[in-house]
# Entry
Amino acid sequence: MKKVLVVICTMLLFIPTILFAEGNNKVKVYIFEAGGCPYCEMEVEYLKGLSSYKTKFEIVKKELYVDHIDWKEGKDYKLGVNVATAFNEAGFEDAAYTGTPFVVISDIYAAASYSTDLEDIIEEAYEEGDKDAVACIASGKENCIRPINTDNIPSTTPGKINSKAGIAIAVLAVVGLVVAVIYIAKNRDTEVKEDTTFEPVIEKPARKTSPAKKTTTKTATKKTTKK
# Structure
């Protein structure tokens, strides 16, 4: 039983690491920018000023345009077009590659505008686990973005499970496993105890008894003689 408890305790030590591994990954905040764009620089300064910078999210810059004067296409222009198009199809109306900064966070935010109201969005992405739609689109995969209106639309991304639901399922599975192991261990201990306290009944052969001796009583008759 002690060995079983040691195994269970060892397994429980790894539960927090397994359950919260996804949530602890930093969120990638993508900024598709143009060289010398003042609003792009302001966006970066705002993000770097948040307390969760470097602990919960990191900034990834992409060159949408070489500069903001001639608007010459940059090395990441094609990716920016594909990302904006994919988000538009999912219902994100503000996603656009025609303006900078074009900011993308997980698969829950995409807008070509300067914003100082992104902290809650980053926190939400961190809690859910970063879906990293940009990397997904760059790799040529489909269904990288959940539709913006998901009230009546089932998830179209195969193999994806909400992180909170996944955590709940994992916790229930671990608890069930622990209960099963303890139950089996207790039953095994009970069986062992029953075996050690059991005393087999040995039938002893019936003891032979010698036949009863016949006892005879002799009665003495007293003879009386007349003198």
